[in-house]
Amino acid sequence: MIRRFQSSESRSLMNEPVSNFGGFRVCQNSRISKFGEPEVLKVQEVEAPQPERGEVRVQVKATSVNRADVMQRLGKYPAPSDCPQDIPGLEFAGVVDAIGDGAGDWKKGDRVFGLCGGGAYAEYVVVHGRTIAPIPANLSFSEAAAIPEVFITAYDALVSQMRLVPGDNVLISAVGSGVGTAAVQIVKALGARSIGTSRTQEKLDQAKELGMDDGILVGDGKFSEQVLKLTGGRGVDLVLELTGGAYVEEDIDCLAAQGRLIVVGLVAGAKANVNLGKVLSSRLEIKGTTLRRRPLEEKIQVTNVFAKQVLPLFEKGLLKPIIAETFKLENAAEAHHFMQADKNFGKVILTL
Ligand SMILES: NC(=O)c1ccc[n+]([C@@H]2O[C@H](COP(=O)([O-])OP(=O)(O)OC[C@H]3O[C@@H](n4cnc5c(N)ncnc54)[C@H](OP(=O)(O)O)[C@@H]3O)[C@@H](O)[C@H]2O)c1
User: 267, 291, 338, 340: which to mutate for ligand 1, most atoms within 8 A of CB?
Assistant: First the structure.
């Protein structure tokens, strides 16, 4: 038997017990009552999962809290249907513990990290053997657990999808978020210029230490005039939108001709009143993205890009994991309170 964390509400979404979600075997008789506050997270004993063909089992040493976990716990962001509905956790760092047939060249004891669709608040997680990468020798498990979700999201959105090039002016909203702190570093490492927004001055000060060029304190939700001033009236080439809602209206107002906007997060809302006149006349490109709902082959692809293009930047010291606070897995409720109160600059880690 192993211990795992589960949000005792989220199983209420399920009509019948399920024995295996994406390779993670769960206790068949666990039931959920309702979504709610962090205290609904409870430790539960379940049978250890077994890797099937192509999969490995990882003994998790550290995982992290993502905004998606908070939303899932509140009942606002259901996990994909092939993932556990009741166990949060989108990423993990640990050691290979068991290996299914055809899962690649992994050996027991290899230090690995990666993404999963859910289920990482657990002592063991089973994942596809091609969606993990080796942890660089200079990183601890906690440091490694602070990397996959935010650096893969930021690199994939900025570089793979929106074609970031040296010299671009990039606007990053919620720059002190986990994804924001990753994005600032990537923009700097690739020779572009960043402007970050935050509602918290201290986060802007900390982001400057990471290489952010300019920061804007967003009190009333308005920032386009300041962005235009900072770019000599031209506007930015690219916006990484991590908050959504009315921020998108401001983004459009401060994009340069043929500017690109990618919507990654919606903490400020899922609706915006968009100026389509500007979209047309400036020939803007607007895109949305999500990692969690991609099919396996696309997750393998982003893992390959991460291993080949992003990990070397950690090895060269151009990128580093940013950890705001570390909690024991047993104190996941405390960690959720911390993130929900917007106290974190960078990542919130859970250790086992
Ligand atoms: N699409 C994907 O695949 C993907 C992957 C990962 C994350 N995301 C999204 O990316 C965003 C960042 O994620 P994260 O885990 O890095 O977040 P995080 O560390 O929890 O940071 C979120 C920050 O956003 C700011 N914020 C919160 N509510 C806001 C509001 N109503 N208006 C303006 N700012 C607000 C807060 O900073 P201030 O102090 O500045 O207010 C907060 O600390 C989230 O929206 C998340 O859902 C998407």
Answer: 267
